[in-house]
Design brief:
The protein is α+β, with helices and mostly antiparallel strands and 195 residues long. The protein has one domain: Rieske Iron-sulfur Protein (3-layer Sandwich). It is 13% helix and 26% strand. The strands form three sheets. Strands 1-4-5-6-13 form a five-stranded mixed sheet, with no helix packed on it. A four-stranded antiparallel sheet has the order 2-3-12-11, with no helix packed on it. It has a four-stranded antiparallel sheet with strand order 7-8-9-10, with no helix packed on it. It is globular, with a radius of gyration of 15 Å. It binds FE2/S2 (inorganic) cluster (FES). FE2/S2 (inorganic) cluster binds next to loops.
Length: 195
């Protein structure tokens, strides 16, 4: 599958009715033992992934017609504590990005979900790919549906979610808790706001 950067891609696929449907393949990574999934923390990613993240968000500043057409936006941050971020509920389907917090806020087909920006394999910043209608990792090419369901690649689980609650017209994302699909399927599935 041809990989493109965000300037040319926008995700347009729906959230699957059953986000757990995709099966995780055997881990075929040649990475050092323990790296990535279990070894790296969210804080590690935020420190080390800045350069990669900058590449992802470059498209946000293009101002071109192509970029304007992308359903990829900067998340509207309304409040912040040490542990939480409060965002406006996205007005339309698409991916709202808070690169500083490492959060992807997806609205799709009546659901809002908060994801960790980093790939669950080795913490590379994920991309939102319109052409393939999915999230895509530029490092080892893992792919995910808009609800974070794993499709293919070296990752062994869906995109990591964060607890999210609704407060009026905002959503509050708990940055201190990463929900891994492989660790707690029920919590992963429940980390959704219906809008
Ligand atoms: S970092 Fe390896 S698939 Fe994303």
């Amino acid at each position: 599958m041809h990989e493109k950067d965000l300037a040319g891609d926008v995700v347009a696929a729906g959230i699957a009715d059953n986000p757990t449907a995709a099966a995780a393949p055997a881990h075929d990574c040649d990475c050092p033992s323990g790296a990535g999934e279990a070894g790296a923390t969210r804080r590690d990613f935020l420190r080390g992934g800045t350069i990669a993240a900058l590449g992802i968000f470059a498209s946000l500043g293009l101002g071109s017609r192509a970029a304007a057409a992308l359903p990829v936006r900067a998340a509207l941050l309304l409040g912040s504590t040490r542990e939480t971020k409060t965002y406006a509920i996205p007005a339309a389907d698409g991916a709202d990005i808070d690169k500083d917090a490492g959060v992807i806020l997806v609205r799709w087909q009546g659901s809002v979900i908060a994801f960790n920006l980093s790939c669950p394999h080795q913490n590379t910043a994920l991309r939102w790919n319109q052409g393939d209608q999915r999230f895509q990792c530029p490092k080892h090419h893992s792919q995910y549906t808009p609800d974070g369901t794993f499709i293919t690649g070296r990752a062994t689980r869906g995109m990591d979610r964060m607890p999210i609650t609704r407060a009026g017209n905002t959503v509050v994302v708990d940055l201190d808790h990463i929900i891994k699909q492989s660790d707690d399927m029920a919590a992963w599935q429940a980390a959704v706001i219906k809008v």
